[in-house]
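Contributing: when you submit paired examples, paste them exactly as shown. First protein:
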Amino acid sequence: MPLVTPLSPEHDLETKALAEFFNETLGFCPNSVLTMQRRPAISKAFINLNKAVMANEGRVTSALKRMIAWVSSNATGCRYCQAHAIRAAERYGAEQEQLDNIWEYRTHSAFSEAERAALDFSLAASQVPNAVDASIQKRLYEHWDEGEIVEMLGVISLFGYLNRWNDSMGTSIEEGAVESGEQYLGKHGWEKGKHG
């Protein structure tokens, strides 16, 4: 049972209008947003931040942003966000081979060196204590410019917020996210856990 019960999508009409963004990314409005709307200023600010972070400004694709989110969520152990991130990666055109082998991104041929550098950055930045070091920085600058690095850290930071929100809330996971989690992550032990 979640710590705080999500409200109806009709509770705050401004949040509802902004949340249409998630119908494209996930196919539904997340229960996390429905919980945030108990304080509509939080739900609206979150959705606007999400839109800004996920906008494409450079070569960091929508699919890669969602894989960065998955690595970050996997590092922190948030099963809710793991399933959401892999679902969004699928919906935003990640290659099937990448989706099937996300756990092996460091060695699998479906991932480029630039993608590996981005995903290793996500892993290092999501750890406590933070593990971003000169080696990570060097690899990033071999493939990405400073604006693209800012985009990546925006995703990592956004999911840091979401990982803490959803794991603390025990947010109930939506059926579509469960399907994606089981399909792509289940073979490595993914399950709903407290989000059931």
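Second protein:
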Amino acid sequence: MPRGVGKVVAQNKKATHDYFVEETYEAGIVLQGTEIKSIRAGRVNLKDSYVRIQNGEAVLFGMHVSPYEQGNRYNHDPLRTRKLLLHKREINKLFGDSKESGYALIPLKLYLKNGFCKVLIGLARGKKNYDKREDLKKKEAKREIERAFRERQKM
């Protein structure tokens, strides 16, 4: 199965608005206890999460996984840091690239692939305000063209 393909559980839509994504990497994620049950139920949020390289390991911060309702005492801390599973050469490349000015590592989406939970990580460069406005103008123009085309088709 290609990278980034599977049953999408959560997506970080704000990431494409705030960043130019230049490269993507697929990473496994280390979960505890009932976290996978909550993820399969779709009770996860990637909104303010980010990835850092610490001690030669990729770590995901700020991903909120709600406690599983039937988990009672086996539940976990919703905002705990989670280790990502990547090859050593990928971690080294990400570490070097993220040290450049203006680059960040952000999770783009969380999905299930062959029964395993995967995270699509993007090496991203931050957008300026004028870039965001330009993207909104392009999106609005495209929407207007499609609307006019549909109206013309009805006639």
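If you have annotations for the second protein, write them as plain sentences, like these:
The radius of gyration is 18 Å.
Helices lie at 13-18, 35-40, 88-98, 129-154.
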